[in-house]
Specification:
With 217 residues, the chain is an alpha+beta fold. It has two helices and twelve strands, in the order H-E-E-E-E-E-E-H-E-E-E-E-E-E.
Amino acid sequence: MKFTFLKITLMAFITVGTFSCKNTEKEAEMTAEEAAEATEMATEYTVDTAASQIMWEGAKPTGKHNGTIKLASGTIHLNEGKAEAGNFVIDMNTINDEDLEGEDKANLEAHLKGTVEGKEGDFFHVKEFPTAKFEMTSIENNVVKGNLTIKDKTNAIEFPATVTMEGDKMMMKSEAFEIDRTKWGVNYGSKSVFPSLGDKFINDIMIITVSLVANKA
């Protein structure tokens, strides 16, 4: 009897310990790092907001949607053609869908922005959170790492990107990469948050591609 009790207690301890370790690892993966600082040798480039954009794609069992978001501002610091530091502000009011037209397009954009009465918090709630922000923490081997803030929640992300120069113009283009929207509290239609949705869910994973153009300040 005593042995059985000790065995059960030990198993419970191991289970709790394992769960705690997994939670700790998950939290570590999401922890933001300190933003990179440019050296004195670096040259500042100002993001051309008219020529830059973020492409997005979201999916559900019955189909998918894709579109763009514009930037409000940004700077990149380069040293001998290599990015040392940088940040950009995303204008969430510019969420644009490219695969629909007319009323369907307007309705989807309004829902994503949160301008529909009673559905403000479903997705990005632009009235309360009009901008998002990315701060670079490092770039090594063509992998950009940084902190992405959406709806006042900040998580670390990384993505492969190439930087090319054309005179006083810098271009940074990422490969398509994934983010889990629920890490930023964008939970509408998420099966991982609402398990009872059945097949009426929207994928947690969004596909993002960043395209930046910046000019020497």
